[in-house]
Amino acid sequence: FYEENSPKEISSRMTSDTAIIETVVGTTVSVALRNMFLGIGGTIYLFWLLPGLTVWLAVGIPGVILPIVFFGRRIRSLSRDNQDRVADVGAMVTEVLSAMKVVQSFGQESREADRFGGAVERTFETARRRIVLRSIMTAVIILAIFGSIVLLLWRGAEGVATGEITGGTILSFIVGAMIVAGAFGALTEVYGELLRGAGAASRLAELLEARPQIAPPARPEKLPEPARGSLSFRNVTFRYPARPETAALKDFTLEIEPGETVAIVGPSGAGKSTIFQLVERFYDPQGGTIRLDGIPLTKADPADIRARLALVPQDGVLFSANARDNLRYGKWDASDADIWDAARAANAESFLRALPQGLDTYLGEGGTQLSGGQQQRVAIARALLRDAPILLLDEATSALDAESEQLVQQALEELMKNRTTLVIAHRLATVRAADRIVVLEDGRIVEQGTHDALSKSGGLYARLARLQFANAAA
Length: 474
Known about the structure:
Elements: H1 7-49, H2 51-54, H3 61-98, H4 100-105, H5 109-162, H6 167-209, E1 231-238, E2 249-256, E3 261-265, H7 272-279, E4 287-292, E5 295-296, H8 302-307, E6 309-312, H9 323-327, H10 336-345, H11 349-353, H12 372-386, E7 390-394, H13 402-415, E8 420-424, E9 436-441, E10 444-449, H14 451-457, H15 460-473
Parallel strand pairs: 3-8, 3-9, 6-7, 7-8
Antiparallel strand pairs: 1-2, 1-4, 4-5, 9-10
Helix pairs in contact: 1-3, 1-6, 3-5, 3-6, 5-6, 10-12, 12-13, 14-15
């Protein structure tokens, strides 16, 4: 779902579209109800006053209904398109502002300004077409309504001239007719707003009606207790939905024993991160089976699967919250004592205690109050606090300096004790101590073994190790 739909565009739908619906429901609907009752009540009054004359109102009904039918669908479509363009602008603004330092570093301010201007122009053009079409519809409907009123007045004038209708009666009829015409004229304006709200509602309805493809089975199998932490991949083949022509994993088979530390290495695009995505059941493979503690992932509840996993991502993702909430994200009911124990084990206690309000300190958007190494140690403490039997380390030290890497590595060694651990690493020095190293290339296992054995084999791992360690020595 998130491959095919931009999170920024989804965010825009949930804000701008909701605001439109709020306006329609809070203001437009009340105006519509008021004018509808006024129009219906006025029409009943006219029928009571001069029924023979009011029947002629039926002449104008097709002139009102036909433009609504003809223009209504097109206006609703343009309203939806306009909201799509507004969402594009919102997504672009969010993207550029969040990467403003990169934009300025590469001197792309003018280009981004032109790109923004183009997006705004496209939005304006769509809105202009919608407004013009809505104006034409309103004009045609008002012309039909007032044309009918003029026809009635002409017939009424004839009645006054022949003595069939008194002057007072026709005056009352004229006043009532003007009220009815004004009410129905206002309803055409309101109808345009309602169509705009309908376009926004249809976009939100798409989100509400979306159903996850990865869902619990009707009768999920329970994972065994206590958890062992074994993982099994048997003949797994997987293609990402957005790239169906390319297999990320091909006939992948791997058995991971409880408590084993397995490092997964290989060039970029070999399929390393795909393994983590499948273990967490963000996707299901097109072929083969993946088992956790002997249970196929497709037969278990995804929530139960993820409860047995703790992830330390490449970038220590933190939320716009205080330190306490970020640390206990994996175990929300953790006590402060548990939080400090995890922080101590992750080499994070000292800088957390130095924060102005301690655990209550707001860390900023994305944890901007902390350095990269500190963010990573908070992520490790969070994983420690979760106390899951399987640990997933995704390039956990790749973006750190030497000092931060040493502190993080020490914290990881503490975290990996008595757990099944899968490690993705480009820096081969960080995986030397792994029980087993699995080397991937083009979605297949080409080698596996210990660091020493693979270094002597002269294969892909030996070549990567020789390049890295030679560069390090240089």
